[in-house]
Amino acid sequence: MEVTDLITPRSVIAQLRATSKRQVLQELAKRAAAITGIPDRAIFDVLIERERLGSTGIGTGIGIPHGKLPGLDRFCGIFARLERPIPFEAIDDQPVDLIFLLLAPENAGADHLKALARISRLLRDRAVCEKLRGTDRPDALYALLTDMTASDVA
Fold this sequence. Notes:
Blueprint: E1 12-16, H1 21-36, H2 40-53, E2 57-59, E3 62-63, E4 66-69, E5 76-86, E6 96-105, H3 110-123, H4 126-133, H5 138-146, H6 150-153
């Protein structure tokens, strides 16, 4: 599964303004609702429930909130670059400024894990993250996220 299977130019947010983890998740849920047609409250509830299991802040300023949604018929991703880093209860206790939301169909099974692994590999690349942090243009962010070949992040 490629990143282009998960996001579109419309699902990239160059300067998301938020002051808390909850606010970020609410804003991402609203954006995902517009893309999926699923109510934002249902999306938010799934994300909050997942965060209760443990933070999706994977360290080095990166968060990958995710969940499986009943009624979703395809994977949906949203990438957001925050205006300012926010506390996210990440595993390294560092604030988060790059977030990749992943929503999967309820019956996605192993494909959900494969998509998470793909996103994680991409965002663990320091050079990619430096470039993502260095631009505030949605088109440039989308290009950086999707122009990488599988060998670049494998």
